[in-house]
Amino acid sequence: MEKPRKTKYKIFAPKVRSDLRKKEREIGRKLNKEEKREFIIQDIQRLRGLSGKVIIFSALVASGIAGITAMGTNKTKLLEAPKESKVISTEEALADKDEKLKTNNNEFKESLQVDFDQNSVYIDENNNNDIVQEIIGRYNNNLSEADIGYIKTNPQFVTIDENGNYVYDYKEKTNASEYITDKNQIGDIYTVIDRTNDKIISSVGMIDNKIVNINSKQVLLGDKEYLQSDNMIDLTKNENQEEKNEEELSKVYDNLKDNYEKVLEDQERE
Known about the structure:
The chain contains five helices and eleven strands. By secondary structure, it is an alpha+beta fold. Strands 3, 4, 5, 6, 7, 8, 9, 10 and 11 form a nine-stranded mixed β-sheet that branches. It has a two-stranded antiparallel ribbon with strand order 1-2. The radius of gyration is 26 Å and the shape is elongated.
């Protein structure tokens, strides 16, 4: 499996969040997930176009070319010579040019309202980085967000072992007390992968409309097999091994789902 690349559009995150809030204020309600995803994609495309024009403009000014590209067109308009001339020293000319260059660049950056030092990877306001930080903190503090991958599966069956745990083991080596084979009972399972060694970190799935931990023995994606790591974590429990409440479980599942879908979106954009 080709490793998903870290998104290069994180610099647009603050602006997109601002635009999203403005849009919701205009329509007087919150956008649903599908509407929000569509808005984010369109807004990023718009901002990519604007940022490209800033880069072109800055390059032209920096090179000293006496002309600017007309915004939104492919035509180039030459600047007319001033009607009145003024003799100034070389030092004054260079200082004036530097000052104008700084002013133009600052104005364009401010108009975009983009913070180029932002480290946020995700754009929506659901704080999906919370689950990522929990995974890193409980599994391996040396991992970065880019080292974590996600796989979605919907298996034909799920095993319940002798201890009542849900197990995904397509090789059927688990001592089973029961099998769940009804497709109406088995929802999507989201598996978290350590991309540095292709090991399974954790799996969370929907069984009988309940969010549960899945002990995934192995996951097959195409012709590539992922096996368990030595320190699997149960994301349906906290660090003290206490069961999370229903709201917390829903957040875990939704965050894993959203992160998986964002990886797909980032790959499509790139």
